Amino acid sequence: MSKVWLLVTIAMMAIISVTKATSINYSDALAKSILFYEGQRSGLLPHSQRMKWRKNSALQDGHDINMDMVGGYYDAGDNVKFNFPMAFTTTMLAWSVLEFGDLMGSERKHALEAIRWGSDYFLKATNSPDKIVAQVGDPNKDHDCWERPEDMDTPRTTYYLTPQKPGSELSAEIAAALAASSIAFRKTDAQYSKLLLVRAYKVFDFANKYRGSYNNSVGDGACPFYCDISGYMDELIWGAAWLYKATKTAYYWDFVKSNVQSLGSFVEFGWESKNAGINILVSQWAMNDSSSASPFISNADNFICSLLPTSSTKSVSYTKGGLLFKQGASSNLQCTTALSFLLVVYARYMHAVKKTIHCSNEVADPTRLIKLAKSQVDYILGKNPQGMSYMVGYGAKFPQKIHHRGSTLPSMAMHPQHLGCRDGDQYFKSDKPNLNMLTGAVVGGPAGNDSFQDSRYNPGETEPTTYINAPFVGLLAYFNKPTLV
What we know:
It is an enzyme of class 3 (hydrolase). It comes from Psophocarpus tetragonolobus (Winged bean). Residues 1-21 form the signal peptide. 47% of the residues lie in helices and 4% in strands. By secondary structure, the protein is mainly alpha-helical. Strands 1-2-3 form a 3-stranded antiparallel β-sheet. The chain is globular and about 65 Å long.
């Protein structure tokens, strides 16, 4: 009997050990996911800056066109300010606060600070009549160097849109960001909220009046880095939907309804395609108005069916470890976090009206959607075949050699001397962990077979981006205090 009890005890200890190793602290992950944005800040850093290894950078941005473009975010591991994904990031941070801000506790303050760092920048980008700044920094020159943002000596070219060089997708996404942010600040800073909304009107008008793709206007500054493949109508509809949510002005709702048929596939959502997000966002009010339901509710339902692992209409795959995987995505977790965010948001809307979804071979209730989203969040935070968190600084095991210039190179405090374009190569090639921890950064994530190569040479898996984290902020807030109401 003693041997049996010994084996039972060992087995129980193993189970307890695994449970501890994979237990999820959503509150800690939430705080870190927001802190990450301080590591991506460009410009003059405030005294409240918590990620201390970062210092002021790019303080002359906009100087080449006589505009103040200091501020904003670096999108990923490079030192360019790509306004298209930055605007989407700001929109999603605002949406996270609108849906889940009441569940964030003390972190809501920091989430609003993260939004404001983006919205302040977009006020600058749209401050000149008939000119909208599209991007700051020459990406081709920047990507040829491995240097700290504090040291940048590559061209800080300012790319901008005009009536003759339009960019409807970028302008409309900025309008969405400003409108969503205006709602987020409505209760805490009414004057700032109004300023954002007034600017959103003007920027949407610019986007709609002067139609064209920023691919052509920005040229090789946009492509191949952040090309818009799906066209600009989804952003125009997205921007109008957010303006309607912010104002309840019939003009914007009419715009959405009259143009929705121009959308392509409804299963995509991210910085490049807003289709699924439009249907989920609009469903909040369409569910309560039968005259407005078509085609938004059916599109949203079909989108959900396309994500369910056992659905016959599934359009995504799942790894053996259970991760939602989009074939061809260069940074898969951007898809996982964005689509999971929509799952939770729609589940809450469904719950409010006691709705279920009838897919071709199964019925899905709100709880089904929540469980699927939770499985994705938990996978990212450590419940996966690698037993590792894909958020830097969270858990006992996480990526150590992420593809990120500032994190890789010695801080200004450690090495105050200038590091030139190629001076960082030795740190990039090193087998040692990064010198600075970019706490809260969610990286691109594992491959389709659940393997992960922790290497700076593998940006698809180890590079963090602002738009991976943005929907994850909302997800973590929800699962920190899960409730369907």
